[in-house]
Every structure is written in C-alpha cells, then in structure tokens.
C-alpha cells in the first residue's frame, strides 16, 4: 500500500528525490514519514510531514533534505541534496497511526504502514 521509488547510486554532493505512492489508506489525514536503515544499524527517523504540511527533520539532514506531500496524488516525497556517504541506507516511507501526536512522530512504533524500501548509496 506504500510504493517507494527513486533510490540509486550518486556521488557525494549529489541529489536524489524519493517518492512514495499510497493506496488503500486514508492518506490525507495521516502524517507521513521517511526512515532509513544503514547496514548493521538500527532504523532511524529522517523526516515527517503532517497533513497540514508541517515538517520536522533529524538534525543531520536539516538544510539538505526536504519532505513534501501531494494530497491530490496520495504521494509523499523526500528531496535529498548535498548527499553524504553517511546518508547511505535503505529508505522507507511510512504512514502514521491515527491520533499520533507531534512528539511521537519520530517513533517508528507509531507507524502502521510501511513501504518496501529503496536503496540510496552515496559514494565518496
């Protein structure tokens, strides 16, 4: 129900745009987030955008990544600029459970729909 695309191999300093298309769920009222998991590391929060388009980011991507959504298309995007090797990971989009409050939106346990993940590799 969440289809992720847009990953790939890019050199450091380059850009990628990830897309996530939702189906079969009430998209417009859910917060949508991006998480990532690097090899041998835990999955971590990257960015989230609420239905009102308010967004928040992990500190290491602020100023480089932008999360956005298009409610008409049931889609969420992650524009990633100035990529670094440490951004290398599998990126997942996720839809938050109903009633999740703002402070909980970095907690992956508050998300009940997940995309299949897309690999992003940044070479140095």
What does this entry look like structurally?
0% of the residues lie in helices and 48% in strands. Strands 2, 4, 5, 6, 9, 10 and 11 form a seven-stranded mixed β-sheet that branches. The mean pLDDT is 96. It has strands at 2-5, 8-11, 16-22, 32-37, 44-49, 55-57, 65-70, 75-80, 89-96, 111-114, 118-123. It is built from no helices and eleven strands. By secondary structure, it is an all-beta fold.
Report mean pLDDT, rounded to a whole number: 96
Number of helices: 0
Question: Strand tally, please?
Answer: 11
The share of residues in helices is under 10%
Largest sheet: 7 strands, mixed
Strand percentage lies at: over 45%
Task: Indicate the radius of gyration in whole angstroms.
Answer: 13 Å
Low-confidence residue ranges: none
Question: Order of SSEs, N→C?
Answer: EEEEEEEEEEE
The N- and C-terminal alpha carbons lie at a distance of: 34 Å
SS content category: mainly beta
| Outline type | globular
How are the secondary structure elements laid out?
Blueprint: E1 2-5, E2 8-11, E3 16-22, E4 32-37, E5 44-49, E6 55-57, E7 65-70, E8 75-80, E9 89-96, E10 111-114, E11 118-123
